[in-house]
Design goal:
Pfam family, one (chains A, B): Peptidase_M24
Oligomer: homodimer
Radius of gyration of chain A: 25 Å
Largest sheet of chain A: 6 strands, mixed
Function (chains A, B): Metalloaminopeptidase that catalyzes the removal of a penultimate prolyl residue from the N-termini of peptides, such as Arg-Pro-Pro. Contributes to the degradation of bradykinin.
Subunit structure (chains A, B): Homodimer.
Structural class of chain A: alpha+beta
Largest interface: A-B, 33 and 34 residues
Strand order of the largest sheet of chain A: 4-3-2-1-5-6
Number of helices of chain A: 19
Strand content of chain A: 15-25%
Keywords (chains A, B): Acetylation, Aminopeptidase, Cytoplasm, Hydrolase, Manganese, Metal-binding, Metalloprotease, Protease
Distance between the termini of chain A: 45 Å
Enzyme class (chains A, B): hydrolase
């Protein structure tokens, strides 16, 4: 991985920062967040502005360029990768370390007095704008909205915004029609006396309308906005996508069943003007919902007196609690996914001794095997396929220049997942094809203990995920070890592999209580720079737990693993497990053998079945 | 408990609400918060205004009087007590119940249009003022600051503000002179480019100046303010307290060593005018720190451009991290405290069969025994001494009409602590003097497992206390049980028994990372309404932990119990403990026996020593 040379780009950017064609007064710093106008985590190539300016292409990071400095903030997953992808014009700001200043503090320390800091108001979320603006003004500076994106100005061959074909999903996959979902949403709005709701998150729009797209790789979403009123549905999307008869029929565009369920279609770009029009017509006491993570640009269209900014939307919550159809779909998707992975591991055992299997070829093989499964749509994120030291790069993606060959001597970590019409998967397994060292086994076992501690946890209804995070770390902490990422994230159903508003993390923001039907990942890890990486990840479903007592009738919850792929026994130091933990491993492997075994048998995949049976022997 | 008759008082209050002698325009409602001008948790009799107007004397509650209505908001701990202490002029607003309106919502529902709501700006914290004011103005009303406290106007025999003798603490007790503390504080101010700091919390002032008072029961503080500049120290305190030669010498009032360490003394009441004078002389970019929990009155003196409101102050943090002298003092205080408690339990075993020991008599006996220890000053909070069902009332305090007799049949819970010149204690033990039921033992053992899980936890430097809270609950959760309070609070050193900014709670606000030298309580519990209460509380010191590995050189922390009082073995179902937990109990009891045994021997307290030896036998 050679760093991107940014000397010329930075020179150009610093020039436009002073160019009156784009800004009324020169700015002394320009903030380039990752993210698009929908605050998406994964973004389309046309929105990869932060990567364009600094070279770092991880999923999270903010670049700031001043007249003298250029700095990038990213988190522990990306320290190594960022340092490799950026040239020495850039300072890497390692978030989460004590000595690392916040963006605000850093700006205040380097800026001359009374500076102006620019940012594209479509790319920065309203809540971030507020915090940044407050911090800067308290130090005598100001945050200014720059309407023209200055990266776009200097980006000569910037790709066009995608507009892919839409997929319609029927009741079989969604369990609820979009009309039902709109009606339920309006019920929530009526409860809170809200007359309008501006929907900006792409997965919320896709979920609400039971539509999918492929505008953003790995995320089956499409560029759109929606404004929902008590008797209006305004959808903003590239109009040519609505020409397909199946889409027109799905949305009842030509023959709406009821007036209040009639969708008015507008071009994607007209959301700003239409929102202005809606706001202009509001009665004095009318309130409009918008997520506080929506863009500053759209948020500020709504007059303060009418604006009700919410940390997460009712759609986000409704989407997170899967209905029985979605749960069944997720289970099916995970069974198919496990079939593909069992095949992959059986194949690897045969092939590795030949010395020709590489990180990239395994990733390709995994995709090939998954694509043979019914209703496969694509991958749910770039496969992390990493050998030895590459495994320590938490969000590693093999490139030709980093590609390592799998061997009998190094740990191999694969974190991968797929989109199926019925669900989304995300699974990590860490394996050794030779003989792991005692130290590798020790670390693996601590990670496994953490994984089990979360998976088997019983906790009261209403508990937030952050209260479970330490369970995943306790065994590592006891030995002075840790990992610098959260333990789990929400998982969509044939939607984004990362979704809110719940998760399991030491970070406590945007963390809504867990409830039955939510689906999250459980993925503790341990990473030793330059040596190896270990992560054990299952997707788990929140289910009611049976307990001996029931304090104040609150009820309890626990998790059911949806991922059913064996955990390599060779990596476990069973002496470090308690009897309860051994029982958990055996029960889990029994379930893998029964459920996935039956499907392997049905699909006639004999070698994988033999491998599964061998890998799920009980431990004692 | 008969209710206070408030007809006449309410009539008087409603009159002064319209009296132009006190207010420029009539107000339609008057808010009476609990709390004093320093936002203290415990308050002096002269500040018990909410109790005066409505009769309810619990520690938390807000009264609001309008022209037609009078209502009191309090939480679940006090529903019964408040309903008994108030007459039927008052409506009890049960906080936490779904149907109970917030103060803001209630005011909006009962007030005529364009009403003015008054409050004493000294009693309401700046952040509360902000929220209330925002809610009222959004409904067309306004919150107004009434300079004369209207309760004081009608309170004829209001006690005088206490002005007790000041105690000076030397290096032997504090480890740092007040001059060192001021210099360190100025270092923090310089780091953040702050030129002034307004200190309003009484414990921060007491800690900074190495002075103590007894103005508020249980809290060794005194009424004062301080304004610290880079070359000024302004202390606002009743001047007659500074007449004592020992105080004058301690503060170097007559012969300051350096100009920047010269204390200027002002009357307590002149803080407002003096702060105005300081603000008037500020240079354009000068910033002044004030806690966002300080009074609205003082906060608003500081022009916004100069004000830097912080959620907790550098003194709060400095005070929380105890220095070696303070740690040594806290250890000594806990040894003496344990001696008193061993004596108490030995005495109880003899006395209880006589049937004459009551909740109140135990509390009195505990105080008597503690008062025999060196440098005893007083109790650190009202003793919670509770038998059987009274134990389920978490903040129970025995009164003659609720006083139960201790017996061989019911669980007894005592939560008590003292102030010594060298430290503050807070300990809870739950015991049975007959034979506990299997269920009582089961619950006790879950609580003990939680207590041990926190006490023995190893965690990385920089971890916040809320990440440890679930360790205390896991064993209870597994069985469907829980407790509805936090697990621990910061403890002062010969200061307030509750202090910030760290703690162990599922609530995550105002939670600063734990660091070596901090002292917190570890007190999980379980409460069964109408039956019993269980709590096991030690005060623990955060210390560095030795671990096998040291990830990223962060270092690890763990806890060392300062409280050394046996945990009743009879209450433990040892089958439910792991070997590690049994070892912890045995190690803990060994330490109790060695440390407290030596002191009991030194003090010649033979019976208590025999009791200690018997109660600290190892379990197998």
């Amino acid at each position: 991985m050679s760093p991107k040379i940014t000397v010329e780009l930075l020179r150009q950017l610093r020039q436009v920062m002073k160019n009156s064609k784009y800004i009324t007064e020169p700015i002394q710093a320009y903030i380039v967040p990752s993210g698009d106008a929908h605050q998406s985590e994964y973004i389309a190539p046309c929105d990869c502005r932060r990567e364009f300016i600094c070279g770092f292409n991880g999923s999270a990071g903010t670049a700031i360029v001043t007249e003298q400095h250029a700095a990038l903030w990213t988190d522990g997953r990306y320290f190594l990768q960022a340092s490799q992808q950026m040239d020495n014009n850039w300072t890497l700001m390692k978030m989460g370390l004590k000595e690392t200043p916040s963006q605000e503090d850093w700006l205040i320390s380097v800026l001359p007095e009374n500076s102006k800091v620019g940012v594209d108001p479509w790319i920065i979320a309203a809540d971030q704008w507020k915090n940044m603006s407050k911090a800067l003004s308290s130090a005598g500076h100001s945050l200014v909205a720059v309407q023209d994106n200055l990266i776009d100005v200097i980006w000569e061959d910037r790709p066009a915004r995608p507009s892919t074909k839409l997929i319609t999903l029927g009741l079989k996959h969604t369990g609820l029609t979009w009309q039902d979902k709109v009606t339920a949403l309006r019920g929530k709005m009526a409860e809170r006396k809200i007359s309008w709701f501006v929907v900006t998150a792409l997965d919320e729009i896709a979920w609400l309308f039971n539509l999918r797209g492929s505008d953003i790789e790995y995320n089956p979403v499409f560029f759109a906005y929606a404004i929902i009123g008590m008797s209006n549905i305004k959808l903003f999307v590239d109009r040519k996508r609505l020409m397909e008869p199946v889409v027109r029929e799905h949305l009842e565009l030509d023959s709406p069943s009821k007036p209040e369920l009639t969708i008015q279609c507008f071009p994607y770009e007209s959301v700003y003007m239409e929102l202005q029009a809606v706001c202009a017509a509001l009665a004095p006491k009318e309130k409009m919902w918008i997520c506080d993570k929506a863009s500053c640009a759209l948020t500020q269209v709504i007059p303060k007196a009418h604006r009700s900014a919410i940390p997460y939307t009712p759609l986000c919550l409704a989407k997170a609690v899967k209905n029985p159809t979605e749960i069944q779909g997720m289970k099916m998707a995970h069974i198919k996914d496990a079939v593909a992975l069992c095949e992959l591991f059986a194949w690897l055992e045969k092939e590795i001794p030949k010395g020709t299997v590489t990180e990239i070829s395994v990733a390709d093989k995994a995709e090939e095997l998954r694509s043979q499964q019914k209703d496969f749509v694509g991958l749910s994120f770039p496969t992390i396929s990493s050998v030895g030291p590459n495994g320590a790069i938490i969000h590693y993606m093999p490139l030709p220049e980093t590609n390592r060959t799998l061997s009998l001597n190094e740990i191999y970590l694969i974190d991968s997942g797929a989109q199926y019409l019925d669900g989304t998967t995300d699974v990590t397994r860490t394996v050794h094809f030779g003989t792991p060292t005692d130290y590798e086994k020790e670390c693996f076992t601590y990670v496994l203990k953490g994984h089990i501690a979360v998976s088997a946890a019983v906790f009261p209804n209403g508990t937030k995920g952050h209260l479970l995070d330490s369970f995943a770390r306790a065994a590592l902490w006891d030995s002075g070890l840790d990992y610098l990422h959260g333990t789990g994230h929400g998982v969509g159903c044939f939607l984004n592999v990362h979704e809110g508003p719940c998760g399991i993390s030491y970070k406590t923001f945007a963390d809504e209580p867990l409830e039955a039907g939510m689906i999250v990942s459980d993925e503790p890890g341990y990473y030793e720079d330059g040596s190896f990486g270990i992560r054990i990840e299952n997707v788990v479903l929140v289910i009611p737990a049976k307990t001996k007592y029931n304090y104040r009738n609150r009820g309890s919850l626990t998790f059911e693993p949806l991922t059913l792929v064996p955990i390599q026994l060779k990596m476990i130091n069973t002496d470090l497990l308690t009897q309860k933990e051994r029982d958990w491993v055996n029960d889990y492997h029994k379930k893998c053998r029964e459920t996935i075994g039956a499907e392997l048998e049905r699909q006639g995949r004999k070698e994988a079945l033999d491998w599964l049976i061998r890998e799920t022997q009980p431990i004692v």
